[in-house]
Amino acid sequence: MPQPISNEQKQQLIKLGERVRSIRQSKALSLQDVADKIDKDRQSIQKLEKGGFNPSYIYLLEICKGLEIDIKELF
What we know:
Elements: H1 7-26, H2 31-38, H3 42-49, H4 57-67, H5 71-74
Helix pairs in contact: 2-3, 2-4
């Protein structure tokens, strides 16, 4: 069973989500645009942007591909 995340970790996930949203919006991409580019559903990207889950490294690489950025730009 996964360990619950701390409040500090939750805040970090929220900051990551805000960064993803900011980049997506700066490129005038909708949630659906990004989802279509990486074969994911819009809801999972929306959940990421709200800090609703802890994404894997591979998932973050896919998000970066959809945003057309290098992963270092995400951080």
